Every structure is written in C-alpha cells, then in structure tokens.
Amino acid sequence: MDGVLSQEEITALLQNGGDMPGAAPDASASGGTQVTAEERDTIGEIANISMGTAATTLFSLVNHKVDISTPVVDMATWDDIVNQYERPCVFIRIAYTVGLDGSNLLVLKEQDVKVITDLMMGGDGMNTEGELGELHLSAISEAMNQMMGSAATSLSSMLDKTIDISPPEANLIDLKDSLDEKEIDEFLAGDFIKISFKMEIGDLVDSTIMQLYPISFAKEMCESVKSNMTKDVQSTPSAPAPQPQAAPPQQAAPQQPMMQAAPQQPMMGQPMMPGAQMPMMPGQMPMMGQPVNVQQAQFQSFSGDFNPAIFQKENIDLIMDVPLEVTVELGRTTKSIQEILDFAPGTIIELDKIAGEPIDVLVNGKYVAKGEVVVIEESFGVRITEIIK
C-alpha cells in the first residue's frame, strides 16, 4: 500500500457520500434505530433536570435527605435488564398525555419501594417485612405521581410548552415469569434507552433506579429541545451593522466657551470656611464625616422548639386515600417448639392478657390505641377507649 487511492476507490467514495468501502454505516442513517452522541447528551440533560426536581419532591414526602446522582445513558435490550437487575422489581409506567406522545418506565427495587412507602406513612423506614402488596403499590404510585408531575413541570420550562402526565401505574414484575409483553411491547421490540441513577435516601437506601425510554420517544424529546433552542436563537435580535457615514463639510471651528473658574480650594494648612464642602471628582468616594443613611439589620428570631408534627401535617394530605391494615390483638404468649408441635383441636392457649383488660389496636403493625371488644349484629367490633401517643 502506497497510500494512493485507485480509481475504483475514488468512485466508491463519491457514490457512498464520502464513506470508505467496507466502512460501518452511520447510526443516524440506519433507519433512525440508534441515537447519536449529541442526542445522548440531550437525553442525559433532560433526565438530570427531571430527576433533580423529582428528588426535591421525594424529600418532602419522606422527610429524609434524598440524593439522585448524575444519570448514565446507555443503549440496552430486554435481556440486559433481565440479567442485570434484581428480581422481583416494581415497574412504574409514566404516560405523557399533553405536549409529548409516549411513555417511559421507571424501575425500582422491591426493598426500596418498601422503605419509601413506610417513610411516607410515618414509619422509620425499617418496617419492610412481608410481601409487597397493594398498599405499597398504591403508595408508590402516588409518590411517583407527585415526583414525575414536578419533573413534567421542569420539562415544560425546558421545552417551552405544556406537558402533562397521566396517573402512574405500578406493578410488581418478576422480569421473566410474570412479564406481560402486551403491556410493554414497545420496549421489547428491540433496543431502547436505559438511564441509570444512583439514589440515596438518608442511611436507609443506597440503590440504583432505572428509567427506560423507547428510542422514538427519546428522539421526539431531543427534537423538541433542538426546536426550542433554534426558536430562541431566531428570536434574539442581532445588533445592526454600522452604516458608513459621509464626511461632514468643513466648517469654521466653533468658538471655545470661556473657562469657568474652578471652586477655590483651601491651601494646605488653611481652615475651611463654615458650610464649605470639598469638591468631589467623578468616581471619587465621599469623604469621612459626610452624613450616610445607615440602618441596623433586622433578623427573624429562631425558636428552639422544633415540632416535626408541623411538617408531617403539610404532607399528610398527599396520602389520605392510602388504605391501612388495622389489626386487633387479644394478647401474646411464648411457646417452645415442642409445645407448638403438641397443639391439637381443643388445645387452650393462655395469653398475657387478663380478662376484661383492654386489647391492643395496631395499624400496619404499629401500636396506636387500646379498646374493648363489642358485638355488632353478630359481628365482633372494637370500641376505642384510649389513643396511644
């Protein structure tokens, strides 16, 4: 090889628009199934702004510090998600109804959802035992509705148009066994955009969440950003070019005005006359001794009685419709394994409660009240006698 192109290679270059024979085709020219580096940067910026706003909203719901890291944008297939992510997990579909046409999936780990929902209901984030039920899915859907609603508001400002979403739908998915391809067929058609975030909630959660976008929907958002930037550039007025001016005709030089006598300043060592002021040059600071209007700064006093119940009250309206499980506990006891194996119909188990003593009322496993058993039309009930603070 002497580095000189043959006539056949030159002809091939001209026919292929400048590509060498055998070179890989451009991703943007292959039917639009891939994204360019510029589009990846745009998608990452959109996700960064959206999740930054969503993190602020999540902080107000759980009353814990929330950190969501800078997103990492990759291309992925469904097999990549199945092999890399923990099972089972919670899929939350966010559909755009105004401004954008499409939807995306937010993928959270099951344990993370349990912690978030427990914090939303006033817990300490440690009540995560048991299976994930409708209560958890309902609560996380409401949380995502608030988070992605605020993210849509930020996206509206970025794209300069109204954007709205429908209420998110949350489902517990095992990725392989219980996957309903009809529900998410648009993501299973081939490659899609995977955006990974590292999420930290205080000392309780240190995990990874994912956001999945169909390529067509991601490209639509990139085009909206590009169109908005172009509109902003066109609307910016440009400075007019200076026009050449003809030389003015020569005129007689105007008569110079008479110089005014400068105010007489006292010579060194001579006292100033009463009421006289020193002249100030342009840009000169006022001399010491001149009256200046000074006001003392006033600050709001801080009270030491911090009451977290005030902040709880501001957020409790967000979860008023979330159902809670109420349990009435007659009493407890401790038995050995041998005693439990000896259980049979008719066995009497003695509890730690005395007859007539108030029974315990628990809400989601939390001890909240005491009460007494009553009968209402052949059904048992509980009359609350005391609220536990």
Descriptive overview:
This protein is of the alpha+beta class. 30% of the residues lie in helices and 21% in strands. The radius of gyration is 36 Å and the shape is extended. 20% of the residues are buried.
Overview in brief:
With 389 residues, the chain is of the alpha+beta class. Helix content is 30%, strand content 21%. The chain has nine helices and twelve strands.
Comma- or semicolon-separated keywords:
12 strands, alpha+beta
Morphology: extended
Radius of gyration: 36 Å
Distance between the termini: 88 Å
**Main sheet record:** 8 strands, antiparallel
- Class based on secondary structure composition and strand pairing: alpha+beta
Beta-strand percentage?
15-25%
- The helicity comes to 25-40%
Q: Secondary-structure element order, as H and E?
A: HHEEHEEHHEEHEEHHEHEEE
Structure summary, number of beta strands: 12
- Mean pLDDT equals 75
- Any low-confidence stretches, pLDDT <50, length ≥5? 16-32, 251-276
- Count of separate DSSP helical elements: 9
